[in-house]
Design brief:
With 495 residues, the protein is an alpha+beta fold. The protein has helices at 2-36, 98-105, 112-133, 190-212, 214-256, 266-297, 319-329, 331-351, 394-453, 460-492; strands at 52-53, 57-58, 61-62, 68-69, 74-75, 78-79, 87-88, 94-96, 138-147, 153-159, 165-171, 176-187, 305-307, 357-368, 377-386. Strand 3 (61-62) and strand 4 (68-69) form a beta hairpin. Helix 2 (98-105) packs across helix 5 (214-256) and helix 9 (394-453) runs antiparallel to helix 10. The relative contact order is 0.12.
Length: 495
């Protein structure tokens, strides 16, 4: 009976202690929650379809007593829908996406490189149309009005049957004369030469059109590269600041544990110098890239930017598909193919030098005493033909040179196709490698975010440092992937 009594007496004590512990926990939890609540309501951006949010990168630091405090700065990265104007964040920085930056930096209506490409296409087109107009009859006219100070002819003396002498004037042209003529000439055999010349002009126009879109993609790639480089620099700067904070806190904690005046060791001095140099380099790098991106956007160099990390946007492109499109749409292949067309037309054009130049000509003329012996107005029609009988082998040698150039163009086309295929293969492998690296860094970033939630209070700085470093590597991998994708699409003729 002793043991049951003890158990019965111990039960109320346990309940009493549990109640006290529960009350203490509730009170302590309320105090902690009250300390964590913000003093003022935070502004919230409107949530739109496609809006994404990312956890803020907060850098925590510790005081001399080891109590965790709020970090010196935090960067809240907000994914928002694309807008026509950049949003100004609550910190005063301009919030901008990659698509907005590319649209602002590359307006097609004011880009001089784009305008230059359009003008080159227009020049080639007008040249082709000018050649086409030569197929039709060439109509010309002339007007002449002249006055001579002397009689334009011969004076003859004629003796009559009665012995009288008379002077007769035989004019060659009138002293006052007016001549109006209208002629029309239609080439016959030169039409074959004009046909080959038209093919050459059409090939030049196709080459110009193939190169017209290249400056736009170059500007977009520059903005994309500057955007991602600034993202990497911002994360590297955050990592350097966390490392500097950790080193400073380590020295403060060590000095507070000793009553004597703290004296840093030689090894610690070297560490501080190294961390300070890294922080200075990261800060300078971030400022330079910010100024560079602002210059592309047309903003002041000191404009603070808050960049939205873009989605990786992985695409599935097979090697065969990329190669087939590149061999059809690549500007280099287009130029090589059109050079073959131009060389073949040049051979035919030189062969036509053996054909006589024949043209049909007709016209109408009105003359007022220009030639007194001719009627006042008349019409005419006829044929004109010219031919070079001897040129001492010039035409033959010219044809042989044109044939050699045509063969060179054909070989250059084969080499260009092989070069483009090899470039597509190399770019495709680089794309796959950068894609795998990007996916790996993103998995690491997700794992660090999960692991960060399980860290204790004294490990917050370590988690922030790891997150900043992994994000820098992740954005660098994304930049490598996008550059490889842009290069592959340029070869495919899609950018």
């Amino acid at each position: 009976m002793t043991h049951p009594n003890k158990r019965m007496l111990g039960t109320p004590n346990l309940r009493w202690y549990s109640t006290i512990n529960l009350v203490v926990c509730l009170v302590f939890g309320g105090i902690v929650i009250a300390q964590d609540l913000p003093t003022a309501p935070l502004p919230r951006l409107p949530v739109t379809p496609g809006t994404r949010w990312n956890l803020p990168l907060a850098m925590a630091s510790q005081s001399q007593t080891g109590t965790p405090q709020q970090g010196r700065e935090s960067r809240d990265v907000v994914f928002h829908a694309a807008a026509s104007e950049p949003v100004v964040a609550s910190t005063g920085a301009r919030l901008i996406t990659l698509q907005e930056a590319q649209q602002k930096a590359a307006p097609t209506d004011s880009n001089p490189m784009v305008r230059l490409g359009q003008l080159q296409v227009d020049v080639a087109r007008q040249t082709r149309l000018g050649t086409m107009s030569s197929f039709f009859p060439q109509i010309g006219s002339s007007f002449t009005n002249m006055h001579f100070n002397k009689f334009m002819g011969q004076l003859l003396q004629v003796t009559g049957p009665l012995g009288n002498t008379r002077t007769l004037g035989v004019p060659l042209t009138g002293k006052d004369q007016t001549l109006v003529a209208v002629t029309a000439t239609q080439p016959i055999t030169p039409l074959f030469q004009l046909r080959e010349l038209y093919k050459i002009n059409l090939a030049d126009e196709r080459i110009a059109r193939g190169k017209a879109g290249m400056p736009v993609s170059g500007t977009a790639s520059k903005v994309e590269k500057a955007y991602y480089e600034l993202l990497v620099a911002q994360r590297q700067l955050a990592f350097a600041r966390v490392k500097a904070t950790q080193s400073e806190n380590k020295w403060l904690v060590a000095s507070s544990s000793s009553s004597a005046i703290p004296v840093a060791s030689a090894g610690h001095d070297e560490e501080l110098i190294e961390i300070s140099n890294a922080l200075a380099i990261a800060t300078t790098r971030e400022k330079e890239l910010t100024a560079s991106l602002n210059e592309l956007l047309g903003w002041p160099p000191d404009t603070e930017l808050q960049l939205v990390p873009p989605d990786p946007g992985f695409e599935e492109i097979s090697l065969k598909e990329a190669t087939d499109k590149a061999l059809v749409a690549s500007p280099e292949v287009i130029e090589a193919e059109q050079n073959v067309v131009k060389a073949r037309s040049a051979v035919t054009l030189q062969k036509l030098a053996y054909v006589p130049v024949v043209a049909v000509m007709g016209g109408y003329a009105y003359q007022d005493n220009a030639v007194p012996l001719l009627p006042r107005d008349f019409s005419f029609i006829g044929m004109v033909a010219t031919y070079n009988l001897f040129d001492f082998g010039k035409r033959e040698h010219t044809i042989k040179g044109a044939r050699a150039q045509a063969e060179m163009a054909q070989i250059a086309l084969q080499l260009t196709k092989a070069k483009v295929a090899a470039a597509v293969k190399s770019s495709h492998f680089e794309l796959e490698r950068s894609r795998q690296l990007s996916e790996l860094t993103r998995r690491l970033d997700s794992a660090i975010q999960v692991q960060r939630a399980s860290y204790g209070e004294n490990s917050g700085e370590t988690a922030a440092a790891k997150k900043a470093k992994v994000e820098a590597e992740m954005f660098q991998a994304d930049l490598d992937y996008r550059q490889a994708l842009a290069k592959l699409k340029t070869l495919m003729g899609e950018r």
